[in-house]
Amino acid sequence: MQIATTHKSTDFDGLASLIAATLLYPDAIPVLPKAHNPNVKAFLSIHKDLFNLKRVEDIDLDAVTRLIVVDTNQWERLDRMSALKNNNGMEVIVWDHHENDCDLSPVWKCQEPIGANITLMLRSIREKSIPLSPIQATLFLCGLYEDTGNLTFPGTSPEDARAAAFLLENNADLGILKTLLQPAYGQKQKEILFEMLKTADRKVINNWKTSINVAEIEGHVNNLSLVVHMYRDILNVDVAFGIFVHSENDKCIVIGRSGTPDVNIGSVMRSMGGGGHPGAGSAMLKAVNPRALKEWIVELLKGNQESSISIFDLMSYPVNSVTSDISMAEVDGILEEKGCTGLPVIDDDKLVGVISRRDFRKVKKSAKLKSPVKAFMSTRLVTITPDKSPMHAARLMVKYDVGRLPVIENDKVIGIVSRTDAMRFFYDTIPE
Question: Which domains does the chain have, with CATH numbers?
Fold first, then answer.
């Protein structure tokens, strides 16, 4: 069985690329993630039956022998597909226009920095002379226009413009396009934008007019990217960032927009563990001081993407650790005594796991507190070497959702660095 899929929070470029995959791979079943953008949802409410889209729950993942991934190249951005990692012999094919490193281990990929992912796929569709229906051409042009800002974003290439012309030649409907791309802008978005404008400040960084705004939000708010886009336009700055703080779940969403080809927002966001394009991008971080994020963005825009401070300068040592045979009750006491939330598990000078407060959620009965640590510890070892930067540590913590990293040198644990340690060089410059 072959399936094709795209990223969570699917936009028009992701949906267009998914449908294009079914043209290039006629036997592939298109699998749409559960979460998609409001305008995509509105489009599918009318057109869904035309494309025979499936959900993950409709697919026997054990039977998948080929996975075609479009508009992303990361496992974590796929919807409930992690079980496929265990399918022996499964081929992965990737079509993606993002510049970040691919972790899907594809047997073949087309990965080029270009305005829209659908442009890459249209190149092959044209070479194979695959006919397009008017609705397919309209959807593809929707994806192309959305990701290039109607061919105005800095990352737009000549090939994007040629692809748009090709789609218009194939009867893409610009009238329908305007309706589909009209963003949903409701009362919540208006209120957030109004508050951001009241507190807006501007500064010049490397000759770019820049504004970075921190705003608190409650609950789920759609189309925050539109808010940042309008914020940049109204302030008439080159670069704008919105840092949206969810106080109830300790998360920060960072969204950036650039109107100058000299500032690559996607590159800035990749440094923060996110992603995007030259003109637009986003990242989500947990348990981070929003003021620290603001300073981080400033440093990234200045070009100081790697600090001269190394992990060796920040790590804690000697390392408090436990062995895999002590009981969970003993670990509980050590964590309480040391005032920490996790410890490396070391046997015979070798790191074998990590135990944290999070792992105690698995201890359902008090009797299990007598069980050894090895029954509950995490054996997914995410480590770092002492010569790496705090920025590198922060990326690892965001990517793997861990709060601490054992520091390894010559196969031995010589220290440990926490999330707070990794960002200390930002925090230290911020007054309480």
Answer: 2-181 (3.90.1640.10), 187-302 (3.10.310.30), 311-427 (3.10.580.10)
